[in-house]
Design brief:
The chain is α+β, with helices and mostly antiparallel strands. The protein folds into 4 domains: 224 residues, Histidine kinase-like ATPase, C-terminal domain (Heat Shock Protein 90, 2-Layer Sandwich), CATH 3.30.565; 144 residues, Ribosomal Protein S5, domain 2 (2-Layer Sandwich); 84 residues, Rossmann fold; 119 residues, Heat shock protein 90, C-terminal domain (Four Helix Bundle (Hemerythrin (Met), subunit A)). Helix content is 36%, strand content 20%. The protein has 22 helices and 22 strands. The strands form 4 sheets. It has a 9-stranded mixed beta sheet. Strands 10-11-14-12-13 form a 5-stranded mixed beta sheet, with helices on both faces. Strand 10 and strand 11 form a beta hairpin. Helix 2 crosses helix 6 and helix 21 packs across helix 22. The longest helix has 21 residues. The protein is elongated, with a radius of gyration of 33 Å. The chain binds adenosine-5'-triphosphate (ATP). Belongs to the heat shock protein 90 family. Keywords: ATP-binding, Chaperone, Cytoplasm, Nucleotide-binding, Stress response. It holds the Pfam family HATPase_c_3.
């Protein structure tokens, strides 16, 4: 029914792009439209139940929440209906015409041809409702917000081609009805067996009953009775005993709550009794959402109190560094009137948070026993977990055990070595865990600082993620071993160096005293100190920072973020065995000056640093090459 109030509006650009992708790319997956529409209907029922806690009238005398599915082979339609919360005109326009997640447009634009065909990538947008257009060439939505007048109904229609019309209608029932006018090649869905099969496949675990009608013919044709049969199991999955839930059910439930098209990597289902009583079902996704690093990206658990849905994305129950964990928390201790604001003040919440944090870390610990699955997790979420030691001191050691690194043992960019692995390979006299931080994997791997370590066969962690230096400032120890940055401070290999080696080093240092003093004079204010070192075997020189100084990587990050920092002068260390250093000893005047400066500049470049005056460096180098 249309009225004078009918209005035609355009979809937001993102919606157009997404519709286009879905219709053309997700063809083989298109049966999931039913799952998505049932999922939305069930969510709408959950929302009504919550609001009706304080206002029974919202049920409008129909408190039996449900989703209904009907089909009509002649009209080629499938209808999904719920008696949930419904939508106002404004809700319809914003929910069924836009996608609110920020960054969506940019993300969609960046997708490559192959990625565009990947249902799992596209699925992360909560494309839910729009998936109807995979099977329908016209979708009609009729809805009314529970508790409003009958004339506050809204009809939304679209052919999925850039615009939709919206009109006011009379609607006696609250809730939402979605009619899909099937495409010619999708009429197969207007079929009882097909629909029932799909409901059981995808929506068994949803607490709200999903019903379908059975029509019984009476004596004459007009005398038919309709009985409604509940097709799904209709019991909230997490309330059932673990032993009775199959992996497929856990996976299907994950897709419902996480709006994800991929299976989860792992899950943990627990019922806790005692002082606190709650059930949690936590999942680790297989793939990171595109907005994992955006502040406003969705995170948190779906919160229920005594099986009543309270809110989505309750972020109070897990720390930020576990923001990739999805799931459900059903508490018996919180009040049904709890709100986001009240959660922040409730002391019970803090206790649950700490318990759920442990559970999540244990779940990851278990996952780590399957190295391949854990690698998938690490590649997606490792850099998020690296925020852990700074955020959660109490669990630092546990988190550290879950970290994975590139190291000189494998020399591979794949971060797959644990600290435990490292410790098992440590040399007999080795006391510390050595690491280097650089801007890129190659800069770390080829750093001159590693030369002595490679020579002596001592393993070094190769760190090059942006967060790594920040991580290492919060990670001082693991399993009683301290962490040592090989590019900072005086290199002391402790007991690994023999007495003779130490003596020889001291003697060399003495022998080079005058050379060191000459260089120091030439370089002046540009360095903090000059000294000979035994950490180099191939390179002539390297720069190091004082032990407690902020590292180069963090400096560059902070400077890029516009944070002014006091200048720090490097310490120049020379390899006394190197031919260029030996040559310095017999060089005078300008040549000495040039060579000393070139060595300093090269050391800075090898560190990934920027030269203050690169042209001067090149000029000097060319003079030397020409000479
Ligand atoms: N049957 C329904 N009843 C009431 N509201 C609905 C219904 N279907 C959709 N909506 C509203 O439209 C919004 C958009 O739905 P859509 O399926 O596109 O995404 P979504 O399922 O909400 O995704 P996400 O859950 O990731 O936010 C929903 O969040 C909800 O507010």
């Amino acid at each position: 029914m249309t009225t004078a109030q009918e209005q035609t509006l355009g979809f937001q650009t993102e919606v157009k792009q997404l519709l286009n992708l879905m219709i053309h790319s997700l063809y083989s997956n298109r049966e999931i439209f039913l799952r998505e529409l049932i999922s939305n209907g069930a969510d709408a029922c959950d929302k009504l139940r919550y609001q009706a806690l304080n206002n029974d009238a919202l049920y409008e005398g129909d408190p039996e929440l449900r989703v209904e599915i009907e089909y009509d082979q002649d009209a080629k339609t499938v209808t999904v209906r719920d008696n949930g919360i419904g939508m106002s005109r404004e809700d319809v326009i914003s929910n069924l015409g836009t996608i609110a997640r920020s960054g969506t447009a940019e993300f969609l634009q960046q997708l490559s041809g192959e990625q565009k065909k990947d249902a799992r990538l596209i699925g992360q947008f909560g494309v839910g409702f729009y998936s109807g257009f995979m099977v329908a060439d016209e979708v009609v939505v009729r809805t009314r917000l529970a508790g409003t007048e009958h004339n506050a109904g809204v009809e939304w229609r679209s052919r999925g081609e850039g615009e939709f019309t919206i009109a006011e209608i009379e609607r006696a029932e609250h809730g939402t009805e979605i009619v899909l006018h099937l495409k010619e090649d999708a009429v197969e869905f207007a079929d009882e067996h097909r629909l029932k099969h799909l409901v059981r496949k995808y929506s068994d675990h949803i607490e709200v009953p999903v019903r379908m009608p059975t029509v019984q013919e009476g004596e004459d044709e007009t005398d038919t009775t309709i009985t409604w049969e509940t097709v799904n199991e209709a019991q909230a999955l997490w309330t059932r005993p673990k032993s009775e839930i199959s992996d497929d059910e856990y996976k299907a439930f994950y897709k419902h709550i996480a709006h994800d098209f991929s299976d989860p990597l792992t899950w943990s289902h627990n019922k806790v009794e005692g002082k606190l009583e709650y059930t949690s079902l936590l999942y680790v996704p297989e793939r990171a959402p595109f907005d994992l690093y955006q502040r406003e990206g969705a995170r948190g658990l779906k919160l229920y109190v005594q099986r009543v849905f309270i809110l989505d994305d309750a972020e109070q129950f897990l720390p930020l560094y576990l923001r990739f964990v999805k799931g459900v928390l059903d508490s018996n201790d919180l009040s049904l009137n709890v709100s986001r604001e009240l959660l922040q003040q409730d002391p019970q919440v803090e206790k649950m948070k700490s318990a759920l944090t442990k559970r999540s870390l244990d779940m990851l610990g278990k996952l780590a026993k399957d190295p391949e699955a854990y690698q998938t997790f690490w590649n997606q979420f490792g850099t998020v977990l690296k925020e852990g030691p700074a955020e959660d001191h109490a669990n630092r050691e546990k988190i550290a055990g879950l970290l994975r690194f590139s190291t000189t043992h494998t020399d591979s960019t794949t971060q797959d070595q644990s600290l435990q692995d490292y410790i098992e390979r440590m040399q007999a006299q080795q006391q510390s865990i050595y690491y280097i931080v650089a801007d890129s994997f190659n800069a770390a791997r080829h750093s001159p600082h590693l030369e002595i370590f490679r020579k002596k066969g001592i393993e070094v962690l190769l760190l090059s993620d942006r967060i790594d230096e920040w991580l290492m400032t919060h990670l001082t120890e693991f399993d009683g071993k301290s962490f040592v940055d090989v590019a900072k401070g005086d290199l002391d290999l402790g007991e690994i160096d023999s007495e003779e080696e130490k003596k020889a080093q001291e003697e060399t240092a003495k022998a080079k005293e005058s050379l060191v003093a000459r260089i120091r004079e030439v370089l002046g204010e540009d360095v903090q100190e000059v000294r000979v070192t035994h950490r180099l075997t191939d390179s002539p020189a390297c720069v190091v920072l004082p032990e407690h100084e902020m590292g180069y990587q963090m400096r560059r990050l902070m400077e890029a973020a516009g944070q002014p920092l006091p200048e720090v002068k490097p310490i120049l260390e020379l390899n006394p065995e190197h031919a260029l250093v030996t040559r310095l000893e017999t060089t005078e005047g300008d040549s000495f000056n040039d060579l000393a400066r070139v060595l300093l500049d090269q050391a800075i470049i090898a560190e990934g640093g920027q030269l203050d005056d690169p042209a001067a460096y090149i000029k000097r180098l060319n003079t030397m090459l020409a000479g």
